[in-house]
């Protein structure tokens, strides 16, 4: 699976926020050794971004 560029182009939200969220999600998935990473040929960032764009996973901004 390649990075979901078509979904990034259509995305109307804050691109910086979703990029940071995808990075954090990719880190989480790699730390728990999620089996879906292997099914995605090890492309964890692409998988994390796709999960966010398709709303399989949601993110929120924490107030500090």
- State the total count of DSSP E strands: 0
Main beta-sheet strand count, sense and barrel state: none
Uncertain regions spanning at least 5 consecutive residues: none
The gross shape turns out to be globular
Level of helix content? 55-70%
Number of domains: 1
- The proportion of strand residues reads under 5%
The helix count comes to: 4
User: Structural class, please?
Assistant: mainly alpha
Which short descriptors sum up this protein?
mainly alpha, 64 residues, 58% helix, single chain
Short description:
By secondary structure, the protein is mainly α. 58% of the residues lie in helices and 0% in strands.
Describe what you observe in this structure:
The protein has one domain (5-53). The protein contains four helices and no strands. It is 58% helix and 0% strand. The chain is mostly helical and 64 residues long. The model has no long low-confidence stretch (mean pLDDT 89). The chain starts with a helix and ends in an 11-residue tail after the last helix.
């Amino acid at each position: 699976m390649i990075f979901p560029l078509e979904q990034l182009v259509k995305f109307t939200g804050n691109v910086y926020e979703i990029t940071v969220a995808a990075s954090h999600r990719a880190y989480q998935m790699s730390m728990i050794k999620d089996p879906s990473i292997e099914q995605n040929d090890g492309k964890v960032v692409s998988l994390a971004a796709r999960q966010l764009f398709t709303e399989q996973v949601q993110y929120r901004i924490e107030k500090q």
